[in-house]
Amino acid sequence: MRFLFRWLFRIVLGVIALIGVTLLAVYVGDRAILPNLFGGPGVGVVTQTQRNQPQEAVPGTEQEIPSGPADMFDPAALAKAEAYAAQNDSVALLVFQGGALRYEKYWAPWDRNTRTDSFSGHKTVMGLLMGAAIADGFVKSLDEPAANYIPEFRSDARREIRIRDLLQMSSGLEVPRFGGWTSLRINLGSDLAGTVTRLQSVEPPGKRFQYTNGSAQLSGLLIQNATGKRYAEYLSERLWSRIGAPPASLWLDREEGLPRIFCCIYTTARGWMQVGRLMLNQGKVGEDQVVPAEWIRAMTTPASTNPNYGLMTWLGSPPGTERIYNDKTVKAFHSEPFVVDDIFFIDGFGGQRVYMVPSRDLIIVRTGRAIQKWDDALIPNAILRGMRAPSAEPAAAPATAAP
């Protein structure tokens, strides 16, 4: 028995030593990773954004969103959507239809001023900003080589990657395995530019869909290099301050460094509603054509490598119940197809969503705890099935709301 205890003790010591050596190696490799890993938000928690530092402000000019009665929706349909949102620890659920906010719900202690982590929702915002950069002449076209703006790509096979390939997630670049060293450095490290520009080409570009943070980060780096402005500055002046969104912030890899453009734009549910309105209105806010209508059509046109993806935007229903990101990560769940064909949406990890339906002039925003098995079909289908013609005499009550 004593012999057994001695060996168990040695095994425990060995495990502790191995963990210690691993942590030391990570700390030496990039000192930002361990503080970000252990000091950041809890797993799936979207409201602890201040734990991710440093940040850079994205000034906005918040405009009030028109509100109206919810009489074109069956109350039972809204109740079903609300119940699913509540069941999954949501922060907010908003429904905008026909030019007005018809339903607005927040779960205490959160309210309309609560900023949350969008996770990959930032990718679509960056896609919109790329359209602005092309319209402004900083970037020539979608089919231009990315190497024109990313010098590290010019001396090897990556010179064949087009900007289109990055935005359609078909760059042919390696997909770092989740939890591996490269993935840790992208998600938590202090040298994003250096890490993503070292990603290697593993297959010809434009041939296979592989959703990856690296392609999004490279696209944002490309915008910054092309404009000669800090990404946050260009985002604010060209997009954010013109769509009526409240101020937002970005998580930087280090002081004065590069934002995490594949994730982590921190704004409110109403901020996301304004992004949705911009896309639903073909890039226009009032009389201001913020992004060309042709660019919104390009973003919502299926890629040849994935009929459910455009340019940093998800489209329609997958062929089965799973929507595949890449061959190394989790999949999204759809319990059934969407009940309309023209739905497109912004997808942030675990159910951060902005669903847009042009044929119904409808936008649905949900923010809240990241749920791996989030059902993409339930809320939009419940609301779509519950839509009916507005009553002849509009109700006097404003949009359903909760503090």
Provide the descriptors you would attach to this structure in a database record.
single chain, 403 residues, alpha+beta, 7-stranded mixed sheet, 4-stranded antiparallel sheet, 14% strand
What does this structure look like?
- The chain has 403 residues and is of the alpha+beta class.
- The protein has helices at 2-29, 33-39, 75-87, 121-135, 163-167, 181-188, 192-196, 213-227, 231-238, 269-280, 293-299, 378-385, and strands at residues 55-58, 90-97, 100-106, 116-117, 248-251, 265-267, 284-285, 288-289, 314-315, 322-323, 332-333, 344-348, 352-357, 362-368, 400-401.
- A seven-stranded mixed sheet has the order 9-12-13-14-2-3-15, with helices on both faces. The chain has a four-stranded antiparallel sheet with strand order 1-5-6-4, with helices on one face.
- Strand 2 (90-97) and strand 3 form a beta hairpin.
- Helix 3 (75-87) runs antiparallel to helix 12 (378-385).
- It starts with a helix and ends with a strand.
